[in-house]
Design goal:
Elements lengths: L1 H35 L3 H14 L18 H6 L8 H33 L8 H13 L1 H10 L3 H16 L5 H18 L8 H4 L6 H20 L2 H23 L10 H9 L4 E3 L5 E3 L8 H25 L5 H11 L16 H13 L5 H14 L3 H14 L2 H15 L3 H4 L3
Antiparallel strand pairs: 1-2
Length: 430
C-alpha cells in the first residue's frame, strides 16, 4: 500500500512538471514571437488610442498604419494606453493575456472538478487537471502564437466570455464581478461582434442568479454596448459621435468579404473551391492559386453563406437556451466554441475560443482513462491545427490546407467529438 502511494506521488509530480513545462514553452514562444515581430494589429490599436488621447479621435478611421475596424468606444475606453510608450503598452497587453488564459484554464478545471465530485468520480491524482490544461493550451498553440504575434484581442474576448458565463452560473458571485464582466462583454461584443449571442444569457436563461443579479447583468451589458458606441460623446459631442459611427460603418463595408486563403470561414471555403475564382495567398506575397472549379454563381454563393449563417446561429442559440443541466463544463465549452462558427470572416486566432473545449476533451480522456481511438482522434485534430502551417507542410501544400479552412474543420470535429461523449440520458435532451 505504501509503495502504491509513493508511486502515485511520483507520478503526480511528473505530471505537474510536464504540464508546467508545456505551458511555459507555449507562453514563452508566444511572448518571444510577440516581441520579435511587428505586431500589426496592436500598432493599429495603439495609433487609434494615441489619437484619442491627444484629442484627435475624430481621425481614427482615416489615419493609421492599417484600417481601424473596431467600434469608436473601443478606442476611447483604452485611450490611456495611448499615453504610454509603445513597448510598455504592448507589455501590459501581453501580460494581461497570460493572466486571462490562466483564468480561463483555472475556471474550467474548477467546473470539471466539481462535476467529477458530484458524480462520484475518484481521480487517481489531482494532477490530471494540470495535464488537461497543458494539453488544452498545446491544442490551441498555433492560434495563440498568432494572436500574441499580431497583438490581437481574441484572448480578451475569450476571457470576458468565460468570466461572464462564470458569473451567470455561480449564484455566489458578487454584484461587482457581475457588473464588471457583463459591462466588458457588452463593450467587446460591439467592438468584435461574434461574442454578441452571450448577451442573451441573462435574458433567456436565468438559472440560479437572483433577480437583482440578473438585472445587474442585463443593465451593465447594455451600458457596455452604449459605451462601445457612444463613448466619443465625451469629447466629440453627439454630432461627432454619430459621424464616427458612420465612419465605422464605411470602414466595415469597404473591408468587404475577405477571400484570402487565411480566412477560415465556411463561406470562404466554398468560395475557394466552388466559385472558380483564384485564391489569394498573402503569406506568399499575394500569389493567386486556383482551387476547385466554377460550380456556384455569385448569387448561389450568397445563398449558401446565408444558409450556413442561419443554421449555425440556430445551433448556437439552441445550445445556449438548452442550459447546462448537470454538464456545466461541457455546455460552456461548446457554447464558447460555437461563437465563431456563423461568421463569414474567421481568422485563425479566433480558434482560441476552443480552449475550454480542448481542456474539457483532454480531461475526459484522462479521467475516463480513454485509450487508443479517442487519443488518436485528439492527436489528429491537434495536428490539423498545429502541424499544417507552411513551416511544417511546405509552400506547396501550405496554401491547400489554409484554403481548405482546416482550422474550422478541426474546430467542428472537436465539438462533435465532445458532444458525442454525452451520456445517453444527456443525449436525449439535445
Amino acid at each position: 500500500m505504501g509503495l502504491k502511494i509513493e508511486q502515485q506521488i511520483k507520478r503526480s509530480w511528473l505530471h505537474k512538471v510536464i504540464s508546467a513545462s508545456i505551458v511555459f514553452v507555449v507562453f514563452a514562444a508566444a511572448l518571444l514571437r510577440a516581441y520579435s515581430r511587428v505586431s500589426p494589429d496592436f500598432s493599429v490599436f495603439y495609433h487609434a488610442w494615441g489619437l484619442v488621447w491627444n484629442g484627435h479621435g475624430n481621425r481614427i478611421y482615416q489615419e493609421g498604419p492599417d484600417r481601424y475596424l473596431y467600434s469608436p468606444g473601443f478606442a476611447w475606453l483604452l485611450a490611456p494606453l495611448g499615453g504610454l510608450s509603445f513597448d510598455l503598452a504592448f507589455g501590459i497587453w501581453c501580460l494581461l493575456k497570460v493572466f486571462g488564459l490562466l483564468f480561463v484554464s483555472k475556471w474550467m478545471v474548477s467546473l470539471i472538478e466539481g462535476e467529477s465530485n458530484r458524480k462520484g468520480v475518484e481521480l487517481a491524482e489531482s494532477s490530471v487537471h494540470w495535464l488537461s490544461v497543458a494539453l488544452g493550451i498545446a491544442f490551441i498553440a498555433r492560434p495563440l502564437l498568432i494572436d500574441f504575434e499580431y497583438g490581437q484581442v481574441n484572448v480578451f474576448i475569450l476571457t470576458v466570455v468565460v468570466l461572464s458565463i462564470a458569473t451567470h452560473l455561480d449564484s455566489r458571485t458578487s454584484l461587482f464581478k457581475i457588473s464588471a464582466s457583463w459591462f466588458l462583454l457588452g463593450w467587446l461584443a460591439v467592438a468584435k461582434i461574434f461574442p454578441g449571442p452571450i448577451l442573451l444569457l441573462p435574458w433567456f436563461l436565468p438559472l440560479r442568479n437572483s433577480e437583482k443579479k440578473l438585472n445587474f447583468a442585463r443593465g451593465f451589458s447594455l451600458l457596455g454596448v452604449s459605451v462601445s458606441l457612444f463613448a466619443p460623446v465625451i469629447s466629440q459631442g453627439w454630432r461627432g459621435a454619430l459621424r464616427l459611427l458612420f465612419d465605422w460603418k464605411d470602414a466595415l463595408i469597404s473591408r468587404g468579404f475577405p477571400v484570402e486563403s487565411h480566412n477560415q470561414s465556411f463561406l470562404a471555403f466554398v468560395y475557394h473551391f466552388l466559385s472558380g475564382h483564384p485564391t489569394f495567398v498573402l503569406s506568399q506575397n499575394g500569389r493567386e492559386i486556383a482551387f476547385g472549379w466554377a460550380f456556384l454563381t455569385p448569387a448561389q454563393l450568397t445563398l449558401v453563406g446565408s444558409a450556413w449563417a442561419f443554421l449555425s446561429m440556430g445551433w448556437l442559440l439552441a445550445w445556449l437556451t438548452r442550459g447546462p443541466g448537470n454538464q456545466s463544463a461541457r455546455w460552456m465549452a461548446v457554447l464558447t466554441a460555437l461563437l465563431v462558427i456563423p461568421s463569414h470572416l474567421v481568422w485563425k486566432p479566433y480558434f482560441l475560443m476552443a480552449l475550454p473545449l480542448a481542456i474539457f476533451g483532454a480531461s475526459q480522456l484522462l479521467i475516463q482513462k480513454k485509450r487508443g481511438r479517442d487519443w488518436f482522434v485528439f492527436f489528429v485534430l491537434f495536428a490539423a491545427v498545429n502541424l499544417t502551417s507552411f513551416d511544417f507542410v511546405g509552400s506547396a501544400w501550405g496554401p491547400f490546407f489554409e484554403a481548405s479552412s482546416t482550422f474550422l474543420v478541426a474546430h467542428l470535429a472537436l465539438m462533435v467529438w465532445v458532444i458525442s461523449e454525452l451520456s445517453p440520458n444527456e443525449k436525449s435532451k439535445i
